[in-house]
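General statements about sequence and structure are easier to judge against a single worked case. When preparing material for the folding task, we compiled for one chain both its residues and its backbone structure tokens. The amino acid sequence and the backbone structure tokens for this protein are reproduced below:
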Amino acid sequence: MEKMSWEIPLFDEEEKNRRHAAILELMEFRKIDCLVIPGMHANYGANRANIRYVSNYAQWFDDEYITFPLKGEPRLYAWSSAHYDWAKRISWIPVKQSSEVDYIGDMIEEIKKLGIETGTLGIVDDRIMPLKTYLGLRKGLPHAEFVDATDILLTIRLAKSPKELEFVRKSAEIADIGFKAMLEVAEVGVKDVDVWTACESAMIRAGAEPPSFSLYVSGPWREKGIGFTYGPMNRVLEKGDVVYNEITPSFGGYWVQLCRPISLGEPTDEFKRAYDLQMEVYDMVVEEMKPGNTQGNIRQKAKEIAEKKGWFLKIVLQHMGLQITERIPLNTIFRPGMYFVNHPWTEYPLESPEFGGHIIGDTIIVTENAAERLTKIPSEIHIK
């Protein structure tokens, strides 16, 4: 893993060539003349995933773009002189500093220079591109055909290369470090904010990109409601509380999650039953997470397990990568190199849920054989 001066892990030329060749293959198949790839530092940086995948550059403010033609040289459009100065050091592709942030004019000029102003332009993806940019491109390129090409990069990014999986495993090591720091600090009389801060600080020191997308809540099982909030409160932990968490660091852009409950004192029987249910689903997922299976099949089995015990099942698997949640169709067939968070989300009661969420969860890679669990923290209720 090569690094630059501020410790952002980088990929090599071989990885660049693999990615770019795969993109060009799908572009040719789809008859797309040029991809227009927007990115911005939203959702903890996850919305810059496509720019990062194509260029090796990770932006940290505002929207920036790439034009990636089928024939010709791709180009990255940077937001300011400071961004340009950094991007040109680490980007795989040539960088242009847009004059007065005129991305629209610069991209139109480049597309015309390539002679494809009447061609097919693929937007990757339209959830991220601002309306102003899209309308500006349509106005400046009135004879071009604009299509949604989000699936091109999402499809290529589904299965990670061995080099990408090195980053994923490192991220999982960092999640373990974060939980250990949280477990050490969590005590009756300690403030929520101190527990959460200990976890985040330990992960950043271990190499996580700040901030982590770590969800956290504490309190009695029934009183916490459904789900988690981002970040802590100033409440003081009490005996009988359970600390719930989704510890979610990113190393080199690759996200993982770890969920482990910490109980301050013996947990209630109700909580133990919820934990046992989620472990039953969790174990089924590990067994079923093999090439050829699908998320939809696993979800249906998990739903049946939960409903037999009166619980509503919301989520089982969360596909991850350069985005915290990479939303793929439920019938996408598993193949080696894909990785997910196995974290059953159950809510109670079945008919009108009042409380619930994740209790247990791990990041797991699909392999040719058995699923590979990355995090090393024991799958148990950690009682203090």
